[in-house]
Amino acid sequence: MIPFEFASPKRLQDATSAIDHKSSMALAGGTTLLDLMKLNVLTPDTVVSVASVLGNSVRLEDDTLTIEAGCTMAQLADHERVRESFPAIRQSLITAASPQIRNMATIGGNLLQRTRSTYFRHPDMPPPDESFDDSNHEKFWHRVDLSSAAVLGNSGRVVGTYPGDFANTVVAFDATLHLEGPDHQRTIHAREFYQIPQRQELQYSVDLKPGELITAISFPVTPALKNSLYFKVRERSSYAFALASVAAGLELEGQGSTATIRQAKIAFGGLGSIPWFSQAAVQALEGKPATDDNFEKAAEAALAEATPPPGNEYRVRLARRCLVRSLRRLRDVGPYSDTEIWAMQHGRTPTPA
Amino acid sequence: MNRAPDSDHSGGLGRRQFLKGVGTLAGASCLPANASAANETAPQEKNVLEHPVSLNVRINGKEISREIDARTTLLDLLRETLQLTGTKKGCDHGACGACTVHVNGKRVLSCLTLAATLEGAEVTTIEGVSQNEELHPLQEAFLRCDAYQCGYCTPGQIMSGIACIGEGHADKSAEEAREWMSGNLCRCSAYPNILAAVRQTAGAEPESDPAAHVRTFSLAEASSQEQ
Amino acid sequence: MATTTFPKLSLEGAVGRPIVRRSGRAKVTGTAPFTAERNLPGLLHAVAVPSTIARGKILSIDTSAAEKMTGVRAVITPDNVPDFKRIPTFNESMQESCLASHVYPAAEREVYYAGQYVAAVVADTFEAARDGALAVKVEYDEMDHVTSIDEAPADERPKSLFGAPPVIEIGDAVSAFEQADVKVDVDFDLAMNHHNPIELHAALAHWDTWEGNESLTVYETTQSLSLSQKTYQSLFNLKPEQVRVICELVGGAFGSKGAMWPHSVLACFCAKVVAAPVKLVATRQQLFGGTGHRTPIKQRVAIGANSDGTIKAIIHEGTATTSENDSYAEAFTMATRMMYQTEALRLAQTQSRLHTQSPTFMRAPAETPGMFALETAIDELAVKLDLDPIELRVLNEPEKSLYEEKPFSGRHLVECLRKGAEAFHWKERPRKPRSTRDGDWLIGTGVAAATYPAIFFPTQARVTLRTDGTAHIDCCSQELGTGTVTTQCQLLASQLGISASRVSMNLGDTSLPPGGVSGGSATAASVGGAVRAAVDALKKKLVELAPSDSSLASARPDDVTFKDGKVLLGSDSWALEELMSGKFKDEIAAVGKFKGAKDSKTSNHSYGAQFVEVAVDEELGLVRVRRMLGCFACGTILNAKTGRSQFLGGMIMGVGHALQEKTVWDHRLGRITNDNIAEYHVPVNADIPDMEIMWIDEPDFNASPVGAKGIGEIGITGVAAAISNAIYHATGRRYRDLPITPEKIIL
User: C126 contacts in B (CB within 8 Å)?
Assistant: First the structure.
């Protein structure tokens, strides 16, 4: 951490005009910024506390769920309507991080969570710059750490995986971000907000201009959001980043495998350099019967463009299976309850209430 | 086997004994070897605050007002400045939970909390949990259940456990309680005992010492069983 | 055995009771004193600068930016490091030094491993030191390095494996194996592990003067106070009275605080340079390199048996790693010396040298990796023979230790297996793998044996009896959370016939009688032996004090006993006050010294049986532990509460070892990449199922002066094998590489 000025503006406008996201950074929950400042990864001269100038309300109006950016992960997960009606939102929050971190991290900050890539977190460790395609390099790839390297959106080289959970639900379910600068406001579709890394970049970038802050996020409330889930596979039962995860929602017409899929919402976590919305999977599902076969095809299509780092091919298989399981479950039973999620983490079969 | 705890101090060590066992040594060892005045070598204080920020915060009910270095985390403020060392540093990066405290009634990680953001906040640490000699029921349950070994993660576990109970996650399934206590690593791995302590305090299980139910055998008993 | 190595001792009363541990109240109220919490007037903070390369020369260290920072007092580099003497390490002189490595902090012009402390910054505040350390710029001339066991030649034999040769041959195991009816010949690959206690390693050093001489006080996180004192004496050419080392409580160690790592020496250097007390706390990242690790190991186990299951040959060989400059050797074949009856045995170890910090002891250093390989291979043999794995073990139960050629002091492995099996409902287990399903999960159960040797470290203790009926123990041992204070008070209470609440103990300070390393599960027996010797010495003193006309005056001290603060001889009793009246004192003390038994006539080990049920989701690569049971025979269990906790803790660390723990490297850079406990996974609460602990309560006075063999380590042994055997039972597939992570399981 380099010494920095601390500013605690009273008005949003004062905050935004003070922030350029480079030498002057916004501090909300602190769970990303302080971690990375201590590692000398982020070195702002000025830290601008924005928690008190961001709203934290959660509102459901006219089939739109609007969450102000200062709302914490815990607060959103525990919101009555979210608990009752929007399982993918709740589950992508409560399977992330730890209860303490969820009490701190804001929704706005969470959307900007940085990659866990070891080469990003250690500025003094040069990342491997080679392309995965170079088949002569089998031995080379065995010698580097690819555990946090993205499988999708990597241009065939080492870039960091987007490590968060909630943002996968955000891109799956067509959410829009509300941004505010000192003298303007704009909205942007979450899928356009995240941009896959360019050459020489270790992680994604975002369409956030100097002076702009995320002030809110809004989800259109659709039937698919109500019949949704977030399925996360991790190495240990809790407090771990995803090896692969799926945010999925299905709107079905009819029952069981004879039902027709009216609308599908699919995104993957733990795989892409950005929260990975899968247009291919959506296309493979919408308008089709909800058969196992179509689920498998959608999973194939979703991962067709994967370019896994050597030794990480299993994450592609894992992601496909996460998707097929999620879709079957949504078709046959519906969303998981919290209790079922805890049971699965303990190696037991969930018994729907 | 069912062994009763020593009848003369079923709630643990009496205070007098505790002072004997720990306090006297602690007192002695606060002094450097051979006790010449360390003050003589104490360096001159100089202005060490880089970008000072003024802070007013209530910690364990006590109003604290002072200038702090902008870089100071709540954890370092507690441990290094205020000598409230019950809150522990285990990783300094939000990965272990040892530094858990309550801010405005919610459990948070003090290592990732910049102290300067706490203007007007109410902080409770492990030091603020018990009232004088009266332990919090979860502290008592930790003693009863031996919910620690080395004790280093313990304050964080207790702060997390109190919150977990308050949030309503401790009195339903054991799986749920385990999940909501998973933000606190215990490398001695007292997890089953921590779970018991939290659930007993939440009223989900009757108060009992898990070790009282251990099955033990004499060699004769162990040898003379069905094959 | 009619007579035991150590005379039997009555353990009536306090011993065994599940009393609340002594430091409990302090621990739950946050007042327990850990090292980094010490505060001295004028205390400064130091933060180390670790090397970012694995091997090379230091060309320059630019301290100018750091020195300009507000609050920075000094930067310690090889240019201003104080004088010290290079001394033997722990590996070379276990009696004299606990220094971990020949590589000194801030003193070398070369780098031997990534994370080597090349400099340190001392400042008024922690923040200034931390940020100052980031501002120190080091220029290196990089040299080639090797950090992977796969890339280093295993062309060297370790000098000694805890005193045993690196190759042990009994009979001709190679040809006996070749001729056997049924053979298992399998290879195992174990990842590097780091201990990761939650308390960070710390040292607080203070140089002062004492009667005109220099004195050094160090508060530090250590399992080896008395050896630390000697080490500082040698390093800085000081007399014992010039060095005091203090550590009242250790916040978890698991072997990582046994040796003295560079941060301690660095704290002393810093304190000397700035002439003020200095606190240096290693960061979590710095523990990966700044302290040692469990070496990666490659093993082969080959077992040949008759078709009836009788083992004819066991071959256990492999290679571990050590560092370029040091000689730590992991004795992973050690337990195979005495686990099973065999006609022929071959144990052989090699080692390779890596550009890493020195490996070191990590909970059951020999047995954790070794028993994983042996006990998995035994399970594989049982499958080949179509025998129940418990029956195969019972069939090959040895009568005596093959290598030591001695009878066992008290083995009881068969009893542990049988009692454990009964409680675990092992009988209901289908023999065939892939027989049980629960939705998406395949369910399997596994068993493995556990073992750990009973060893001692020379220890002295002073016992004080007071006329008010209380007693006190002084011993420079350490409290790691193992319950040393509590259990030793119970042991003394039983010998004095009083309640444990009337006994207190001080440890953790070199001003007390010297103790041994709190490691190797040796503390209970070693301190217990010293306390027992002190009680014997007290008896002699009391006989001498007795009025000449009393029967006590002519008594054999061994016939003297105690009860309720009184001295007993047959039916006569004396209040301590009576005996002390002529001395005008209200207490009497004696020091006992314990060195262990010379030429023990028995093979001294603890044993146990581990049972595990797992659920495996092959599609997702997940393994979850659903049930665990451990049944142990470790002699007397001194406190049911703290004892149970130690077994639980060992077994849970075994879950981490089996399924999660792995230090990840970029071998290209020679650096550890998951140097944090978010990505170096250790078990969390949600990983741990319901567990049951059982034990056979049988004091072992051949292995221990107090009947207790020590339980800190046995709990982890065999767990990884029981888990991998259960995964085999669930899936029909063998997993011989640790940790068994999803990428290995997923189909």
Answer: 76, 80
Q: Which domain holds residue B77?
A: 52-128
Enter the DSSP assignment of C279: E
Nearest to B72 among C127, C284, C505 (CB): C127
Quick one: pLDDT band at residue B28, thresholds 50, 70, 90?
very low
User: Residue B225's pLDDT is what?
Assistant: 58
Per the domain annotation, does A185 fall within a domain? no
Class of domain C42-144+199-251+257-290: alpha beta
List the domain range (segments joined by +) for residue A20.
5-49
Per-residue tokens: C458: 């020379």
Q: Which residue of B has its CA nearest to C72?
A: B48
CB contact under 8 Å between B5 and C17, yes or no, is yes
Angle made by CA atoms C687, C692, C697, in degrees to the nearest 5: 140
C713 is catalytic: yes
What is the predicted pLDDT for the residue at B46? 43
First-residue to last-residue Cα distance in chain A: 49
Nearest to C746 among A314, A347, A349 (CB): A314
| Residue A327 touches chain C, beta carbons under 8 Å | no
Looking at CA atoms only, how far is residue A345 from chain B in angstroms? 8
CA distance B20 to B118: 39
Q: What is the pLDDT of residue C583?
A: 82
| Chains within contact range of chain A (3+ C-beta pairs < 8 Å) | B, C
CA A117 remoteness from chain centre: 15
Q: Copy the structure tokens of residue C100.
A: 């971990």
Chain B: nearest CA to A298, how far in angstroms?
32
Q: Considering CB atoms only, which of B21, B49, B174 is closest to C22?
A: B21
Q: If you ran DSSP here, which 8-state letter would residue C179 be given?
A: H
Contact flag B148-C27 (C-beta cutoff 8 Å): yes
In degrees rounded to 5, what are phi and psi of residue B76? -70, -30
Contacts of B169 in chain C (CB under 8 A): none
For the question of an ipTM over 0.85, the answer is yes
- Fold classification of C457-594 is Aldehyde Oxidoreductase; domain 4 (3.30.365)
Give C91-148 pLDDT, tens digit per residue.
Answer: 998 889 999 999 999 999 999 999 999 999 999 999 999 999 999 999 999 999 999 9
Domain boundaries, chain C: 42-144+199-251+257-290, 167-194+293-455+601-745, 457-594
What is the total count of domains within chain A? 2
| CATH T-level assignment (fold) for domain C167-194+293-455+601-745 | Aldehyde Oxidoreductase; domain 4 (3.30.365)
- List subunits contacting chain B, requiring 3 or more Cβ pairs under 8 Å: A, C
Contacting residues for C327 by C-beta, under 8 A, at least 6 apart = C89, C91, C92, C158, C159
Strand C690-696, strand B215-217: pairing: parallel
* Residue B180 to residue A36: CA distance in whole angstroms: 26
Interchain contact, A239 vs C684, CB within 8 Å? yes
Could you tell me if B108 and B142 lie in one domain? no
Pairing of strands C278-281, C44-50: parallel
Count how many domains chain B has: 2
Please state, rounded to an integer, the average pLDDT across all residues of chain A: 96
> Confidence class of residue B32 from pLDDT cuts 50, 70 and 90?
very low
Question: Is residue A158 domain-resident?
Answer: no
Question: Would residue A132 count as lying in a domain?
Answer: no
Q: What is the chain A residue with the closest CA to B105? A: A103
State the catalytic residue, choosing from C169, C415, C713, C743.
C713
Judged by CB atoms within 8 Å, which residues 645-674 of C form the interface with B? Answer: 645-646, 648-653
C587 burial type by CB count under 10 A (0-12 exposed, 13-18 middle, 19+ buried): middle
**Bridge partners, B122 (sequence order):** B58
- Whether A286 maps to a domain, the answer reads yes
Q: What is the mean pLDDT of chain C?
A: 97
What predicted TM-score, i.e. pTM, was given to this entire model? 0.96
Which position has the higher pLDDT, C596 or B225? C596
Asked if the Cβ–Cβ distance from C29 to B6 is below 8 Å, we say no
